[in-house]
Amino acid sequence: MFEIQEAGQFSKWIKKFRDKKVKVAITNRINMLMLGRFGDHKYFGEKISELRVHIGFGYRIYFSVQEKKVIILLCGGDKSSQKNDIKRAVKIFKGIVSK
Fold it and tell me: pLDDT digit string (tens) for 51-83?
């Protein structure tokens, strides 16, 4: 079982959703992460992975696994903002690690 931690950027992103179906789908994916069930995801390097949520605009959650027990949710976005979101996730992760 993994411990889930949220970066401030991720918390802000998830709170903006008004569509309950989207929030439930994202929450369910995070709950599966806690159990170690990563499902549809992709590793990008620099310790950053993308979790795909197949609802709405194709939402993405960017995360990092630390010490095989902690998952840090860095930020989120959708397919249209993917390139910028990956860059932002790397920047957030580097900021967390440097503390």
Answer: 999 998 899 999 999 988 899 999 999 999 999
- Identify the residue with better confidence: 99 or 64: 64
CATH number 3.40.50.2300 given to 3-97: no
Query: Where exactly are the structural domains of the chain?
Result: 3-97
Which are the contacts of 35, defined by CB distance < 8 A and separation ≥ 6? 1, 2
The C-alpha atoms of residue 47 and residue 66 are separated, in whole angstroms, by 9
CA 40 – CA 7 distance, rounded (Å): 21
How many whole angstroms separate alpha carbon 97 and alpha carbon 74? Answer: 12
- Which of these, 40, 23, 31, 43, lies nearest to 1 by C-alpha position? 31
Kindly state the average pLDDT of the residues 22-27.
94
Cβ contact 26:53 at 8 Å: yes
